[in-house]
Amino acid sequence: MSVAHPEHKRARFVCLVPVLFIGVLLPVSTSWHTSSVDGGAMVEVQSCDRGLGVQSWASSAGLYGTGVQYGLQYRSERASLTITPSAGLSYVDHAAHNLPQRVQFVLGLQALAGWDDYRLSVGYRHLSNAGLTSPNVGEDLLSLQVGQVLRLP
């Protein structure tokens, strides 16, 4: 059974029921792709975890990003499951072999499990210059986060 929250009753272009996350950002290295960035703590804020929204994130590893997202959410009485694709721009505050430019494009996918106003998130982000310059190696990152919906008065 889908339950609508009062915040979602009025149609808006961008949803505004903020969610604040804290967690870790982990670089992904494989046999064919070695990471050139470190992992670290991260914080993320989303304007909403359902429907069209915006997001921004920052990590202690010197990686930052912002963009748009769309949360596809299934909701029962108290639980929710959300899949959120996102796209935007990222900034690297230091030299990184796989990220030759400071400003990069970022594509992401996040899975959120929720209970009332609490969220558990597993996410994937790919940072790349989209082939605009050489080399176009890019970075793959995983995030593990916990979050809470912030109810606005």
Summarize the topology.
Elements: E1 19-27, E2 40-46, E3 51-59, E4 63-75, E5 79-92, E6 103-115, E7 118-128, E8 139-149
Antiparallel strand pairs: 1-2, 1-8, 2-3, 3-4, 4-5, 5-6, 6-7, 7-8
Structure characterization notes:
The chain is mostly beta strands and 153 residues long. The protein has no helices and eight strands. Strands 1-2-3-4-5-6-7-8 form an eight-stranded antiparallel barrel. It starts with 18 loop residues before the first strand and ends with a strand.
Shape: elongated
Structure class: mainly beta
The major sheet is characterized as:
8 strands, antiparallel, barrel
| Overall average pLDDT | 89
Which descriptors apply to this entry?
153 residues; 8-stranded antiparallel β-barrel; 0% helix
Give me a quick take on this structure.
Helix content is 0%, strand content 57%. The protein is mainly beta. It has an eight-stranded antiparallel β-barrel with strand order 1-2-3-4-5-6-7-8.
